[in-house]
Amino acid sequence: MFHTRPLLLLLVLALALPSLLACGDPEAQAEGDDPEQMARQAPPEHDPEATYKGRTAAEHAERLADLSHMRQLSALEDIAAMGVHGLPAREAIHALIDGIEARNLDPRVAEHVELAALGTLYHIEAPEAPAMARQRILDPGYSERTGTYRRLMGAALNSGMDPESLGADIIGLATSEPEHAARLLRTEALPDTVQADLAQALFPLDHDAETTRFFLEKLADFDFIEPAQTLDYIRSHQDLASENSRATHSLLVIIGTEEALDLALDVSGSTAVGEPRLVGLFAQSEMGAERAMERILEAAMAAETPEAIKAATDALGGLTQELIRPFRGRTAEPGTPEMNLEIVHDLHVGALARLIREGSTEAHQAQGIESLGGYLRNNREVPPNPALEPVFAIATSPEHGREARLNAQQTLQATVTSFGGALEQDPEYVYTETVRMLWTGTDAETTEVAQRILGNARRSSEHAALVLEQLSLTMEAHLDDWAVNPAAAVALSLASMDAFDRHPAREQGTVVVGQLIASEQADLAFLEPPMRRHMNTLANAGNNSATGTIGLIGPTIFAEHAALHREFEPAAFAQIMLQQPAWLTDEPGAAEQWQDFLQQVVAADREHFSTTAQEALDAL
Questions:
Q1: pLDDT tens string 128-155
Q2: CA dihedral in degrees (459, 462, 463, 467; nearest 10)?
Q3: C-alpha–C-alpha distance, residues 410 and 426, integer Å
Q4: Does pTM top 0.85 for this prediction?
Q5: Burial of 61 (0-12, 13-18, 19+ CB in 10 A)
């Protein structure tokens, strides 16, 4: 019995036909190149009286003379279903093929019918079928459509045609008929070895646009093409390469050199700044992330307007995000890809630091600072030290203009005080550098940001103690600077925290305040508000110590200049000496230390203070 198969699969496409003819030896196949010679061979054994759907092959063949191509296709399907027993229809099939041209059918319909007829010859095992396919494959005038040759190729090879023999003929076309050879190459239906050999033969020749597009898509697939040849080919056909720039970029990324990147940018008509995603692909290839960062940094350095500088730093951020994306959402452990995430952070921060330090204008520095601050706020795992070093450097350097310093300070405030930001990661570094920044201020405006940052220390007694320690260690060199005023305001606020009652930090902070307000630079207009808010707490000797209380009032009493106490209420300041706190009896040596101090005040004969000191001594 025979089994029906789908018409389009068996007759039109002819891509899945079983091997019907033995391969034979090469000489026999060489003799079988001529369809007429092969047609004279004895056909396989078959039964002329066999039927399918109640009809013999000859009876089915009668329908091939019908003028309707759909009925012809139906007849071909039935004949093919009979297999070798369909051979009695062979002559009618040839007649159909020979008469197609005279019928003036639509070219696509004519091709459709002829391929179906050839497919039927394959299926009934007509000896001439492979040679007929071979003849048409090698004929450049057979069809204008590459798809036709693709189907012919598949049918011929599936029917048992020797691929080496066919391949030799096709490769020969590279010299005699290069355009047709290129068309066969584009079918991608050739055996792999034939495809590669034909491509190698055609590659050095001039191509039409379609073949050039083919090579542009397949350059990476051919081992014989060196990277330098790929670059030259793309350069020579840049207009066509730009039609599918994404595919061209992918090809160039495989090469991965800086020369390849330059060509990729030329193909897209862009620059490194305009294509951060593309540069990111090269950063992960031979070129490397460091050089990719440098390319965009160089563009930022060379930019002459704030808009161009910002575009370059935005591109730098875009490149970094491309490099970071694979590592997001993973747990960082030594030896895992997350170590690469740290490297990416270092490269990005380093590039912006260079822009800040080496940029030729304040616009470069300002944009670098703004971008660095934003990056740290968005990537809180980046350590603030040394990332913030160039920002602190400008914020504290008199060599930079006032505007640049204020810009750096504002960026610092936004960066270090953000939730989960630098203050939480490394408070010691941030507060140490901020105290240093505070000392460089020359007026209220240039110290405002430092005061705000240091004011955050009130949220934690540990942070507050750290700031008071830094003020204590650094103040001596700045007692003649105007910055003693904001420094005193910070110390007053932190030292007066409730957590520091009878605490060493209260003592240390009070000593700092005493030294600062005794400076000739002390400004009552600036200091009066924080003193009225916090001085009573510090002046309460019961919650302080002998050293702290003496440190608060001593420097003012013994100052040689017209100290701050001359400007407000010295009597109230002097009243501190009349207190009799518990430590006079509870703490060993405290009473002796206090009495020595009072005696020194009496001996100094200071207006407003010496008489009060004597009164305090008498009370003891």
A1: 888 888 888 888 888 888 888 888 887 6
A2: 130
A3: 19
A4: no
A5: buried
